[in-house]
Amino acid sequence: MPVLAIGGAKSFGANVAIVMRNAADNVTEVMIANSGHWLMEEQPTATIAAVHSFLDRKTTTTKSLPGKPLDVGQLGR
Q1: pLDDT of 52 strictly over 90
Q2: Whose CB among 38, 56, 65, 69 lies 3.0–4.6 Å from 31's, allowing a Cys bridge?
Q3: DSSP secondary-structure letter at 6?
Q4: Class of residue 23 by CB neighbours under 10 A (exposed 0-12, middle 13-18, buried 19+)
Q5: Where are the beta strands (DSSP E) in 1-77?
Q6: Alpha carbon 37 to chain centroid distance?
Q7: What long-range pairs does 43-49 form, CB within 8 A, spacing at least 24?
């Protein structure tokens, strides 16, 4: 099952995806720049774009490597 792990660059960042990879092997890691814990309050446009792009994907093969988060713009590709 595809899993989207979103972390704020000034907060949990990549740790969100690290934790998710303990339970899932198809984890897409997205780090929202200039955001801390409150993603929707601090960077709503980037957060919504990440969720929309993830949900709009036609394939489940896009994975990020540990420690190499995808840019929000890469999700739509």
Answers
A1: yes
A2: 69
A3: E
A4: exposed
A5: 3-8, 27-32
A6: 14
A7: 43/8, 46/72, 47/6, 49/75
